[in-house]
Write a structure and sequence with these properties.
This protein is an alpha/beta fold. The chain folds into two domains: 3-118, Rossmann fold; 126-276 and 303-318, Dihydrodipicolinate Reductase, domain 2 (2-Layer Sandwich). The chain is 35% helix and 24% strand. It has nine helices and 14 strands. It has helices at 12-23, 37-46, 56-60, 72-84, 99-110, 126-136, 174-190, 277-293, 303-318; strands at 3-8, 27-33, 65-68, 88-91, 117-118, 143-152, 194-201, 212-218, 224-231, 238-245, 249-253, 257-261, 267-268, 301-302. Strand 10 (238-245) and strand 11 form a beta hairpin. Helix 1 (12-23) packs across helix 8 (277-293) and helix 4 runs parallel beside helix 5. It is globular, with a radius of gyration of 19 Å.
């Protein structure tokens, strides 16, 4: 049995999901759409056989599941249209930027035939699986906290510049786009988080998104999650999440690489010689989507988890001293 998938939004994530859905045995793509001629052209460059729908509703017609890779603004409208049609709703993050609107979305999706799920791409990754195993086996010892470090010479990054909205304060910024992934990670391993302090720095132009973000959060036991994120300067992109344990630390680099240290040099915890990390993560996500659509237990992020992340992110962007 295959599931018919519609894809709304053909930016970077939409195209990646399209390529992976076409390769996954549990899915067939029944419709794709994007209002941007540039995004459509890039899609046809790499996948010339894809049939484009004339509008979002035509793309969604007859689908079993709708994947929403559009910007946050229209996401709620499409999600509720799909839910009303009895289709599964698989969304990119964030759910939105207005917390009240997103709470309403989550409440409505809770009443749908299937509860909505969100594409935090690490959820089913090999790295998550290995860290869960290490924690269960006692290899990490007691979890002490999580450190998040992000450095970008510029935002958006070069490969994201087609998505101009990412540079704008209303919907974009790397706190929403990147740090949200790592807050989801922290929540999975430490439980619900509370924001204690946040110090964002913004450019003079009020339309543009944050430059820097320093923040501290804690879980119910007071275990800290610290965030240091900056833009500017000249260095490679840096994205590191260190899960600190009393016996062993684990560190995610570039989302999917996993390293470990027991006090000595960092060593790789996963062997990627026979597998591409990004493809692996998306194929594993789609396997979880298949389980979700069939009503089975899955590892995907729930809409409730995504809402909790959104509320933390939006509070961080306002700042708290």
């Amino acid at each position: 049995m295959t599931h018919r998938m519609a894809i709304i939004g053909l930016g970077i994530m939409g195209r990646r999901m399209l390529e992976n859905a076409l390769q996954h045995p549990a899915f067939e793509v029944c419709g794709v759409w994007d209002p941007s001629d540039a995004s459509v052209a890039k899609t046809l460059e790499t996948l010339p056989g894809v049939t484009l729908a004339p509008n979002a509703q035509a793309a969604m017609a007859g689908a079993d599941v709708v994947y929403l890779a559009c910007p946050p603004g229209p996401r709620k409208t499409y999600a509720l249209q799909a839910a009303a049609a009895g289709q599964g709703v698989f969304m990119e993050k964030p759910l939105g930027t207005d917390n009240a609107q997103s709470r309403d979305l989550v409440a409505q999706l809770r009443q749908a035939r299937l509860p909505g799920v969100v594409n935090f791409t690490q959820a089913a990754s090999r790295g998550f699986e290995e860290l869960n195993r290490a924690i269960a086996a006692g290899e990490t010892g007691e979890l002490l906290g999580i450190d998040i470090v992000v450095n970008y010479p510029a935002w958006p990054r070069a490969w994201q510049k087609d998505a101009g909205w990412l540079r704008l304060r209303d919907e974009g910024g790397y706190t929403r786009e990147v740090i949200s992934h790592f807050l989801f990670l922290a929540g999975r391993f430490l439980g619900p988080l509370t924001l204690q302090q946040a110090l964002p720095r913004y450019p003079k132009d009020p339309a543009l998104c944050e430059l820097d973000m320093l923040a501290r959060l804690t879980n119910a036991d007071g275990k800290p999650v610290t965030i240091m994120a900056t833009t500017g300067g000249q260095q490679p992109d840096r994205q590191e999440v260190t899960v600190r344990g009393s016996r062993m630390n684990f560190q995610f680099r570039e989302f999917y690489q996993l390293w470990r240290s027991d006090g000595g040099p960092w060593v790789e915890a996963l062997d990627w010689r026979n597998e591409d990390p990004r493809t692996s993560a998306l194929q594993r996500q789609l396997t979880e989507v298949d389980l979700w659509l069939r009503g089975q237990s899955h590892k995907l992020a729930t809409a409730e988890e995504a809402l909790a992340v959104q509320e933390l992110v939006e509070a961080m962007l306002v700042g708290k001293s």
